[in-house]
Structures are given as structure tokens and as C-alpha cells.
């Protein structure tokens, strides 16, 4: 995570109602343990999502109880 | 040059192919699937059926993905036989494909209800993308739905009814949804979730037979009590039948699935299996187990690929699986083997929050979390560490789980 802290870049999650045909979409069960934990922490507002260290890229939509798009903060 | 053949292009077969190419760059790799499309995101097809997700993002690999990796992909090709003496795989077109090492990653097919008219038009089973397209079309045009099968796949049909505005009746055999893993308290939260999306759970029910019109379309389901439920859409999810028919009478050890060790090796030399189809040796549980989830299938495929390429026991499968339900306002997570415990601890925290932990021989082997998923990583960690904690249930049932509150392992 050194890169994250040194650049300080973070991502946010935006709730979306629809998904573009060219979007990358992942189901919550397809996130690895680390990404899952960071995703939930970001969802609960506990911590912003780091821009590196997970494979959650800006534009990716994650399907949980709602759809959330990962966006640059 | 080693020739690898993989039957099945689901996530387990595909992840094995990817691993094999990385581990053995000069080999020949053939993937054979009876589906008409390359790997897609099977766990997102329910979102397509619900009408929420377009088709394109569900695809994972296009044919170019295989070309780039020099992997031969045979679509629409059904394997009809395997000769492990000759080391060939036989296809429906009469072609023989030779192999040095074979991976069977053929998963399962939804089981049909053994009742009259269970294949009538309007009655659906849910496994493939093609199924999802038909379910979506049928649900969009339907008014009344019936769902059968009170488990993890049945609830997807209930969600389709809810999302597509179909008035649904969810006919369950016992007194609650997923009775093997949930007590009445936990199940009630799920029942409320169903009701909120417009699907009514009906208990001590099921389907005795379907009624059809003159065109062979389903018009009603009649339960064993004689109650009749009109429907123009029905979803059946009563279990999976593993795709092993093509194995005929070869000497492969099977036990409701293909028996493999933790290296994904079967009892036959150079024959491996991975994914839903396996009865694998679970090193955390200390016995054979089965798993029907994406993450586990993907990892089993990877492990099989590593060991096939190494021609040895290079890496063992060690995994805590997860399976989520995302259809309601509250999250749901089942992890590990929630039905295999010899002891359980559970607590309800609010109208939408409940937790159940399964222990076997004093260790956490699985559980179900509803509403608050925060403890998942700690409970999974305990599972991996195989710590003896069944005598400290109170700590694990605290609203916020703090592993530091557990007695240190050496003092136990
Ligand atoms: C509707 C639905 C929702 C799901 N939701 C979730 C979820 O939320 N979370 C989760 O973790 N898991 C979920 N799952 C389960 C998950 O999708 C599976 O566990 C996983 O996809 C299994 O992968 P696999 O590669 O073992 O088998 P499969 O994906 O079933 O692949 C096997 C392939 O082999 C092919 N095949 C079979 N026999 C032959 C033959 N003789 N010749 C050639 N090809 C053959 C089949 O057509 C198929 O393409 C869901 C499954 C479904 C159907």
C-alpha cells in the first residue's frame, strides 16, 4: 500500500441504477478478500477506497445489494 | 510437448487453461465446451434475467482471448466419452482428441422436478446464459409466477419475479427457506425480504404437478396439499445433477461428483477434476466436501492447472468459500460449510441482522451472516487458522467481533 499513501489517491463508490454496455461489471463474490474488505469499508464510509492495491479500477461496477460504480475521487 | 485437454469452459476450466498457459508456455491446450459461447460471468446472468444488466458486460472472454494464448477452443462440442487407456476424449461429432493430461470441469445441470409436465413451456431452470435470456423474456411477459426450491438458486427466481413485476408464490417443502443452514429467526428475515419484492413464501408446500393449456404452456402448479397456484411463469431450482454421464463406466471414483484430493487429482493417473463437479478433500475440514461457488471453482481450476503443469503435488487447494445474496435491501453471506457443523451458535441483532456460526470438532467451519457482514473476515480467519473456539461462542456473537477477546490459542 506504500504507493497509495505516497500518492494519496483514492476512489469513491457511486450508486448507479443502470450499467453501460461497455462497462466492466463484477459481482461482490468475485472480489478477492482484500478488495472485498476495502469495498465494504468504503461503502460504510469508514475509509476511502485506495486507488491501488486492488483490481477495482475506475469505471468498474460492483454488484452488491445495489450497483456501485468505482470513480476517481 | 504436453497436450492438455479441458472439458468445460466455465470458470474452473477457463482458469485452469489460463494457469496452464502461464506454467507451461510450450504446451498444447484444448478447451472443449458444449455451450455456444466462451466463458461468461455465470453469477451475473441472474441480473440479466432480472432486467437490470445488458448482455455485453456479462461476457468475460471472447474468442480472441483464446487465440492470443494459443488455446484451442471448441464451442458447441459435447464430449460423449473418455477412454483413459487410449487417452482420448470422444466428441459428439465422432472426433477423438488425444491428451496427456485431462481436466474434467463440467459442473452440473439443474435437476428437473420428477412430476408431470415439468418441461412445459414457461417452466424454467437456471444455469446458462441462454437460460437467462429465456427467463428474462418469459418473466417480462408474465403476470403470475411460481418458484420451487428453497435454496440459494431458487431465491434467484424469486428475485427475478420481484424485479420483473411478476406476482410470485415461492412454494417451499418445509417451514422455511434454506432450512439446512438457517433457523426460523434467520429465515424470517429472508421471508420478509421476499415479501418486500412481492413474492409470497408458501410453507409445507411444493409441486405435485403442473397444469398446462392446449398449447403445452404452464397455467398452474398444484401443491401436494391440493392447493392450485395459477402461473404463466415457473422457476425450478431443486438441485444440480453433475455432468458425469459421458464418463460411462470408466473406473473413475465418484460419489455424487468426482472424488479428488487437495491437488485436484482423481484416482486415475493424469485425470484431474475441478469446480462444482468435485468432491474434494477439504484440508480445513479434514474430510471430503463439495462447494458450488464461483471463487472456489476458480481457485480449484488454478490449483489443477498448477499441479497438472508440475506433474506433481505442487500446491494444495485451501479455500474458504463465500456465496452472497444481493437481491434485498440487506446483504446476505454464507461462507464455508454452514450446514456441516456439529454445533451452532446464533443471534438476532435487529429485524434485518442475524448471525449463525457452524462449528465442527470445536472449530469454525462456516456460517451465515445477514444484514451485518463485518465479522466475515474474522470468522474466515478463524476457519483458516483452525482455532478451537466453540467454547467461546459469546465472543463470536458479540455485535462487533474482536479476536483479541478470545483466549490465546496456547491457553486453551
Ligand atoms: C443463476 C446462478 C447464480 C449463481 N450465483 C452465484 C453467486 O452469487 N455466488 C457464487 O459464488 N456462485 C454463484 N453461482 C454458482 C457458480 O456460478 C458456480 O459455482 C460456478 O460457475 C461453477 O463453475 P464450474 O466451472 O465448476 O462449472 P460450470 O460453470 O457449470 O461450467 C461447466 C461447463 O462444462 C460444460 N459441459 C458440461 N458437460 C459437458 C460435456 N459433456 N461436454 C462439453 N462441455 C460440457 C457446461 O456446459 C458448462 O459450460 C451461481 C450459479 C447460477 C447458475
UniProtKB/TrEMBL annotation, chain A:
Q: Which domain of life does the UniProt lineage start with?
A: Archaea
| InterPro entries assigned | DUF7979 (IPR058285)
Q: Which Pfam families match?
A: DUF7979
| Domain DUF7979 residues, every copy | 10-71
Q: Could you tell me what this protein is called?
A: DUF7979 domain-containing protein
- The species is Natronococcus jeotgali DSM 18795
**Taxonomic classification, please?**
Archaea, Methanobacteriati, Methanobacteriota, Stenosarchaea group, Halobacteria
UniProtKB/TrEMBL annotation, chain B:
Which InterPro entries does this one have? FAD-bd_OxRdtase (IPR050260), FAD/NAD-bd_sf (IPR036188), FAD/NAD-binding_dom (IPR023753), FAD/NAD-linked_Rdtase_dimer_sf (IPR016156), Rubredoxin_C (IPR041575)
| Residue ranges constituting the NADH-rubredoxin oxidoreductase C-terminal domain according to the UniProt record | 330-386
Q: Which GO terms describe its molecular function?
A: oxidoreductase activity
Q: Where is the FAD/NAD(P)-binding domain?
A: 3-288
Q: Which Pfam families does the UniProt entry name for this protein?
A: Pyr_redox_2 (PF07992), Rubredoxin_C (PF18267)
Q: Does the keyword Flavoprotein apply?
A: yes
Cofactor or coenzyme needed: FAD
Alphabetized, the UniProt keywords read: FAD, Flavoprotein
Please report the name of this protein according to its UniProt entry: Ferredoxin--NAD(+) reductase
